[in-house]
Amino acid sequence: DDEGRVFNFAAGPATLPASVLKQAQAELYNWRGSGMSVMEMSHRGKEFLSVIQNAEASLRSLLNIPDDYAVLFLQGGATTQFSSVPLNLCKAGDAADYIVTGSWSDKAFKEGQKYCNAKVIWSGKSAKYTSLPQAGESSLTPGARFLHICANETIHGVEFKDYPTHLGDTLLVADMSSNFCSKPVDVSKFALIYAGAQKNVGPSGVTIVIVRKDLLGNAQPITPVMLDYKIQADNNSLYNTPPCYSIYICDLVFSDLLEKGGLEAAERRNIEKAKLLYDAIDSSNGFFKCPVKGEVRSLMNVPFTMETAELEASFLKEAAEQGMVQLKGHRSVGGIRASIYNAMPRAGIEKLVALMKSFQARHSS
Ligand code: PLP
Description:
Keywords: Amino-acid biosynthesis, Aminotransferase, Pyridoxal phosphate, Serine biosynthesis, Transferase
GO molecular function, one term: pyridoxal phosphate binding
Strand order of the largest sheet: 2-10-9-8-5-3-4
Number of strands: 13
Domain Aminotransferase class V: 6-352
Low-confidence stretches: none
Structural class: alpha/beta
EC number: 2.6.1.52
Shape: globular
Order of helices and strands: EHHEHEHEEEEEEEHHHEHEEH
CATH class of the largest domain: Alpha Beta
Mean pLDDT: 97
CATH superfamily of the largest domain: Type I PLP-dependent aspartate aminotransferase-like (Major domain)
Largest sheet: 7 strands, mixed
Number of domains: 2
Number of helices: 9
Cofactor: pyridoxal 5'-phosphate
Radius of gyration: 21 Å
Bound molecules: pyridoxal-5'-phosphate
CATH topology of the largest domain: Aspartate Aminotransferase, domain 2
Distance between the termini: 33 Å
């Protein structure tokens, strides 16, 4: 654009709303008359406390989080939660089930094996992670403490639209890193939701955990203090120095989402944006192909392929020349991947679709 900004289709860290970046820029040197940058503030001072409290209040309002859930702003990325979840929810040796729908849930399972008796009860690997379990295709291990799912697989582009039900006493845990705050979610269906911030809500590093309060306080004795949810909750996420600046950016993003109509409105925008792109793929007579089946396609990460690696390389090159960047598929799957999180404007997708059409016209025989 005229400010030299590109359309950034990266899977994460991802693009942030322009209005948020501009507000942060205006407040960088002297935050709201405090004479300091948020980066320079005491995390226990009244200024920063107002930031983190406002961030929590806005997130509670966006997601309608019930009062019996704690909201934690932690560090270490979603990857750290792969260990924290079993450490806090299981005794060593407890059974825990994993539905593996792509690379991220596979990583969560592998880490979980260290701290509980983790079992894969459904895997999409044989279909190259292009599908999700259908009703009746998986059954829980008797006594399983929790069932872990990845709500949206960032690399493979499959997203749960409905969540597993009839779990009895088994707790539902979801990694929502890549679709967090992209749509409304009934938090009460989950025992625990976690998300790295760097796709829809802020800078990498800060990690949000929403956990039912009655589950706190039973961490395994070996749990590192930083990973113990009870200690973090008792200290309002201020047990040690938190990632203050990153939490401040999350606060701005949450306010921005609220101003733009909340998560119902965000979902409407995301459905429209994703439809533009999937329609372009599906109406290309096979020139572009999306391996993921219709009903489980992600609204956030859209993978697609072309006939040859040469065509893909030349498409990526033209896209970059036009200011559309980070469209290369993950190194494990190749092809193209357009990540179209909340902050990707519709104009970015319209521009991508225009290139797809002109590229196809020039390369079809
Ligand atoms: N889970 C999902 C769904 C992800 O997309 C990612 C990162 O891309 C992770 C977990 C790991 O997140 P982090 O890099 O914050 O540890």
